[in-house]
Amino acid sequence: SQHQQLAQLHDPTETGVLWQRGETGVLYASATVQSFWLWSTQTLIHLGGQLNQDVTDLVLTQELNLFEAQALLWSEPQQRYANVAQDGSLYSSSTTAAFLPLFGQLPTQEIAEQLLVGLLEVDPHTISPAEAFLIYQGLQNYHIVGPAERWMRDWQELNLEKLSRYPYWVMLVSVY
Fold first, then answer.
1. In whole angstroms, what is the distance from residue 43 CA to residue 154 CA?
2. CA gap 68, 100 in Å, rounded
3. How far apart are CA 73 and CA 93, in angstroms?
4. Residue 165 confidence (pLDDT)
5. More confident residue, 75 or 165
6. What is the CA angle 96-97-101, rounded to 5?
7. Given Cys at both, which of 76, 91, 121, 139 links 144, Cβ 3.0 to 4.6 Å?
């Protein structure tokens, strides 16, 4: 029910995209928020199936969400996902916002492979342990296993100091 309340609050017109207000008051769609929304809907579908519940509405919602988010958030010229203001202009976003849709299983296989190329060009120091873990999991969603493991090892080596401040993340990402 909280999932439905969130949708009603941030997607009142049922467009399949969650909108939020930025610091300047501009309504925008966040690639990060949409990624977690897609992941949570997929998780609810899985749990509902395990409990023999009718998840037809959730499946239809997920299909709409995937279609609308892909159409809105994918920037073909930049070859990455971006936050988008309601008027269609790009809205400021972090570098990692471009890659978190991998975790939400938003991109097609082809786009996921394009994102991997872009990810290899990003300064690893700009990616937090949590973001690295989610991006790694996202690459796994697309069976990009070898490159994902190499990327995670390289990220770990370049971020040993950062990891030492977060013992939990050391344990979590060290299994990869």
1. 30
2. 17
3. 11
4. 67
5. 75
6. 110
7. 139
